[in-house]
Design goal:
6 strands, two-stranded antiparallel sheet, about 190 residues, 7 helices, mainly alpha, single chain, elongated, about 50% helix, two-stranded antiparallel ribbon
């Protein structure tokens, strides 16, 4: 996989907040890939998820995005693992949502849309509310985590058909490992 591929944004996790989690690749490896390394990359990502704020993101916005992303990751993994959510993450998310009201103002031109968020925090509030809805609602049972130890990417799998996250590298590595294990078992059986 080329550096360019590793930095490509992922929009295949099933929800905007899950795609935010995917802005870090191989999160649990020795060399995680940060896809939101600059305010410009954040601007690009927010534009692609239809949440471009009226004010251009800066370094402080980027740090808040990283913080919210990791808070949501902790809550998502606890949900998938059917563990109690970390109290600090719950408190942080609750405070963030409470501090950032986001009244719905609709606009209509060729389609119905929400008015754009004024700031990155307003955009994050929309993402956080989406996460809260899925983490506390019936959809929480459709959340899965990639079994690859260095990924653990969280994604929606309402049909319960996926084994790995949507990243092709994870499925490929998993299949190769499974094939090698089957071959080793066959060789061991033949040696007996």
């Amino acid at each position: 996989m080329t550096t360019e591929d590793k930095l490509a944004f992922r929009f295949d996790c099933g929800a905007t907040w899950l795609n935010l989690l995917a802005t870090t690749g191989r999160r649990f490896s020795a060399n995680p890939v940060e896809r939101l390394a600059t305010p410009e990359r954040l601007t690009d990502w927010l534009e692609r998820v239809d949440l471009a704020p009226q004010r251009t993101p800066d370094d402080d916005d980027l740090r808040r995005v990283w913080q919210l992303r990791e808070t949501l990751r902790a809550l998502a993994l606890a949900t998938v693992d059917r563990q109690p959510p970390p109290a600090a993450a719950v408190a942080e998310l609750a405070a963030f949502v409470a501090d950032h009201p986001d009244p719905i103002r609709l606009a209509a031109d060729e389609r119905l849309r929400r008015e754009p968020p004024a700031t990155v925090d307003d955009a994050l509030a929309r993402i956080a509310r989406e996460a809260v809805g899925q983490l506390t609602g019936a959809e929480r049972t459709a959340l899965k985590s990639c079994p690859e130890h260095d990924c653990r990417g969280v994604f929606l799998d309402p049909q319960d058909r996926r084994r790995w996250c949507p990243a092709p590298a994870c499925a490929s590595r998993g299949r190769v490992r499974a094939h090698r294990a089957r071959r080793s078992a066959e060789v061991a059986d033949q040696a007996r």
